[in-house]
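Here's my example:
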Amino acid sequence: LTRRQRVAIGRAACAPATAARRRAQTGPVAGARVAVDGFNQLVHLEAALAGAALLHCVDGRSRDLASVHGTWRSVAGTEAALDQLVAALAPAAAVCWVLDRPVSNSGRLAALLRARGQEVVLENAADRALAALGAAGWSLATADGPLLDRVGASVELAGPLARACRPADDPLVVDLRLPTPEGPAGPAPAPPATGAPHAPPPQRPPPTPLSH
């Protein structure tokens, strides 16, 4: 596998029990106190709007192959992405954006968010601050798997917006989700009750002799 393929698998895959736990902890934005993993959510929606590859992962989250290694800069889709994220957060009871202070232009992003009426904190250790908010009862908006595993409640924020802005037949949108009992095909059929007669297998018609 190429490095990019290995990155995709690493971001999309997790143990079935972990995936089930992450899905179970996901709740609605409405009425929740939401702590937003700022760069994680913004960069994902920017990537989606730019037509980059998207992964629908086994834990139900949407992820991309982009990464922020100490550097972020505004791109063509930044303003639109921020507007969509802020609008999606409107039903929340409270919102706090957490940004990594060491990332370049984090102050500029904080200013863009505050201009939209958002509360923003800049932290030298953003993951630690987000985990602390999660422990205090906030729901985290993040697709960071290890961070999701450290908290009790989360919401999907950028993921649904990213999926909505791309056509269903987009070849760069890869669905790696596992089927679940309540998946798109509907509930799994119940097994027959104990002692209930099974329907006989269908009878095949006798084969037609081949002509010589």
Summary: Residues 182-212 have pLDDT under 50 and may be disordered. The chain has eight helices and nine strands.
